[in-house]
Specification:
Blueprint (H helix, E strand, L loop, with lengths): L1 H85 L15 H8 L11 E11 L7 E10 L2 E16 L2 E17 L11 E18 L13 E13 L4 E9 L2 E10 L1
Antiparallel strand pairs: 1-2, 1-8, 2-3, 3-4, 4-5, 5-6, 6-7, 7-8
């Protein structure tokens, strides 16, 4: 009986040891499984991440050209649309403001005898008073054309004849003056606002012919007047009564001390 009891105790101890060892083995097995699972997760995750990255890179690579091409395709349209959208609309010709520089030129063209940008011509026709050589009334004309910077150049010609007739004896002198003429227009210098008024000053260089004749036919008569070069100076002004017609007056030295007449500007 005692032996049986001892055997039972030994069996119980062995059972207890077996149960404990089996639980320890189970725990160790579970830990091994967990370690194996933990070791297997990075390996399995890295390929998925790599594949994900590669797929993302491939998608980006595949979409970049499309985006660039689409932007390149749409940029001209956008540029053209923006250019069309932002281009200022042209105003009608009736609503456009006229520049202030152009307005005076039109208004002065009808009234001013000397407007910049066009070559005006000046024609004077008149008679002289107080002739320097002999007597009589010189008849003359001058013609000038704008050159530049308020300067006009041209020519002049004058004719004068005077004489004596008494008791069948007759004699006379004939004078002809012809020369080149230049004038400087002083309106700008004198700050004259009236464009119809044109003051000027200038000089004339030319030839003078002095001839004598009588009805006796003296061959040895010595005339007190000679032919040759002459130099004249003049200061004068013209005033236009209309767009092209006016009057002029000059004083100076040459043919006569005073000259009056009509003037035309065209």
């Amino acid at each position: 009986m005692k032996t049986l009891f001892t055997s039972l105790r030994i069996a119980a101890v062995l059972f207890t040891v077996g149960v404990c060892s089996s639980s320890v083995i189970a725990q160790q097995s579970a830990q091994a499984v967990r370690r194996a699972t933990a070791a297997a997760k990075p390996a399995s995750a890295s390929p998925s991440l790599a594949s994900g990255k590669s797929s993302a890179a491939a998608s980006l690579t595949s979409t970049k050209p499309a985006t660039a091409s689409s932007s390149a395709a749409t940029s001209p349209a956008v540029a053209s649309s923006s250019a069309i959208g932002t281009a200022p609309a042209r105003e009608p010709a009736a609503n456009r403001p006229v520049s202030s520089a152009a307005q005076p030129s039109r208004s002065l063209a009808a009234t001013s005898p000397a407007v910049s940008g066009s070559r005006h011509k000046y024609l004077n026709v008149g008679l002289g008073l107080a002739a320097y050589y002999g007597g009589g009334l010189p008849l003359g004309a001058s013609f000038e054309v704008d050159l530049k910077d308020n300067i006009s150049i041209g020519a002049s010609v004058d004719y004068m004849r005077y004489g004596y007739n008494s008791g069948g004896y007759k004699w006379n002198y004939t004078f002809v003056y012809a020369g080149a003429r230049a004038s400087y227009h002083l309106a700008e210098v004198l700050n004259i606002a009236d464009k119809k008024f044109d003051p000027y000053a200038g000089a004339t260089l030319g030839l003078r012919y002095a001839g004598y004749s009588d009805n006796y036919g003296y061959d040895n008569y010595v005339s007190p007047y000679n032919s040759g070069l002459y130099l004249g100076i003049h200061v004068g002004a013209r005033y236009l009564f209309s767009e092209k017609l006016g009057g002029f007056a000059e004083v100076g030295y040459g043919v006569s001390a005073l000259r009056l007449g009509l003037t035309s500007t065209f």
